[in-house]
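Help: read this over?
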Amino acid sequence: MLQNLMNGIQGWITDHIVPVMNKLTATYWFGVISDAVLYIVPFSMVSAIPSLWNIARRFWTFLPDISPITTYSFGLVGMFMAFIIPYNVAVKENRKDRAMIAGFTGIGTYMLCMNPTVLEDGSYAFTMSMFGAGGMFTAMVIGFVVGFIYKRMARMSFFGEDSLIPDFVKNWFDNIIAVLLSLLIGWLVTYIAQVDVFTMVGIILSPVTNFAQTLPGTIAIPLVMDTFYFFGISGWVFSPVQQSIQKAALAQNMELYAAGLDPVNINAYGITRYIMIGGEGATLPLAIYMLFAKSKKNRTLGRATIIPSIFNINEPLIFSTVVANPFLFIPMVLQAIILPANAYLWMSMGWAGMHVENFDMNFLPNAISAFFMSGGNWGNVLLVCVNLLIAAILWFPFFRAADSYQAKVEDEQAAEKAAKRAAKKAAREAAKLAEAAK
């Protein structure tokens, strides 16, 4: 009955959901924005070094403050996003000659929309937080507008193909309209219409971002990701939305923490350390159980996947064992509900700290990342251990049932093969006896 139910669910998802997701991920703009999110990962990872350093400074106060490394890496990802999106558009349109200028136009338009304060001496004062993760959504919007302009004008040129004017000079003039139009739109919105683009985008997205900081919102993201993952759709599909929400929340926490105030966002970047233990789906316990499985197949897969699982790489395990396995659907869903709910409870009760440091080292054991992202709070280490125990409890009975079933199948297959070998052997011996009787 369970098998029939799972087949029905999988069939419905395959027929109705997967085509929609495939169309979404194959769309032009989804590809441009998701690629842009991946481009900024190295800058996020670099900022992990100051996080480590700040922990050390608590014990050795003579060490210098290297937090500007974070300020000018993770603290600039919004500006980087404004560059990358138009740049990617030009590349996708096979106009690499315009890609750099498209990216620079994105930066210029992004900074224009910041509407900086003009000081008495005529200099401009920008708000640094606008350049970072707090401005990622706005950067996506502005990058999209600039990218759209460049996409529409990708085939336009003032010159014919047989023109004797050097290519770089052609490129200067061919970019003028796109640059001017992008900046003109930014100027009209910011200076003439007096619209604060950053505030406007924040207001439009506030229902989503506010919901994300509630208990249901904290559960919803991993629940959707893990449910789709069970049916073979990677959680990376949702990363542009997930990371934009959580990195903006982390940026706000970091700003408050630096000012000596308490952080306010539980669902900040890095909360996956308490949910994706061993990878998406909290499958580290499953990988351990597989080492001691009855099934030969599961034991072999356990040996092959345990090391990657320790470093939170579980695609080999998921696609070889979990995907579409009716025995493992329930724990896949339960852990996606219980683990984030428990993390939310601990942080809201003050048993663990909200994240105030960016430590983007996903391949380290989760307890280490949780310790540094919380600013050195041992309660977060304990939370990882508790959630690991919960995940182990959730996976155990269902894995035992799946493993027993797989072992039974293997025994039946082995018996069937042995019977076939015995039948062939008996046939050969009968043939020999018949030959001898002649």
User: Anything to note?
Assistant: Residues 378-437 form the longest helix (60 residues).
